[in-house]
Amino acid sequence: MHRTRVLVPGKINQRVIDRLADAFEVVRIESADPVLVTPDMRDVKAVAVAGRLPGALMDVLPQLEIIANFGVGYDGVEVARAAAKGITVSNTPDVLTEEVADTAIGLLLNTLRQLPRAEEYLRQGRWSRDGAFPLSPLSLRGRSVGLYGLGRIGLSIARRLEAFGVSIAYHTRSPREGLSYVYHPTLTGLAAAVDTLVVIVPGTEATRRTVNAEVLAALGGNGVLINVGRGSTVDEPALIAALQGGVIAGAGLDVFENEPQVPDALMALPNVSLLPHVASASVVTRNAMADLVADNIAAWFATGKALTPVPETPFTRRAV
Q1: Which among 69, 221, 250, 258 has most CB atoms closer than 10 A?
Q2: CATH T-level topology, domain 97-274
């Protein structure tokens, strides 16, 4: 019997391939380039993707019903085009929430206490040769933290921060009910009210470079920026200038504007902690994400509904 075909453009976690291969015919192409779609692929009904999926690829797959995105963020998928075509897009929320929140706290501590630099100091033999590592100029003690974004991950970060005894505030498009955290209607207002800004918003045009020179100036000379959301949210040249000029005290970044390229000017700064986009990068969490990608596709064809559709595409499968 003919099995439903699932297209996988580019790289994806191998567990996705292994899981899908049990019930579907997996078709692979090198990248999400519509030129690579051959006429015999026109019967593809599902796509599993990690990263970019342009509308042009959807256009050459006339039978496409569902796009299962590997990741909670789905800004790489042209979801408006998918919605207009009646194509369901799913993502992988919840299964990576706690891991990313853990990483955000670790990155914050690394940035404030310079723990990676301290470890390197030890590994270089400098503790015994040169004496104690210098005192960290910053601490989490007495800090006030502002969260730019308060979705699932933002709330998990906030719960962890409560245990550290810091004050917590937030900025979103509208206030969240039932929370004791202070709400600020503008991002600049939030930055002015806190000395630590944690960014955890999706990478959309609405959030693009919203953490700009004005926001960084409002954060102030004792300010620290932490970004575990998307690199596009931060004006990178403005951030570099702010760090070089003492406009803010430090930054911890897991994401960058042009990944995997990281500006040399950022790498040269002593007051930053940099990670290669690893917030959800544990075997346990990535396996859970892979399973949810496969399960979304399986559920779509078995029940007519995706398990975790994005809000823009709340569709059910048409009878065939």
Answers
A1: 69
A2: Rossmann fold (3.40.50)
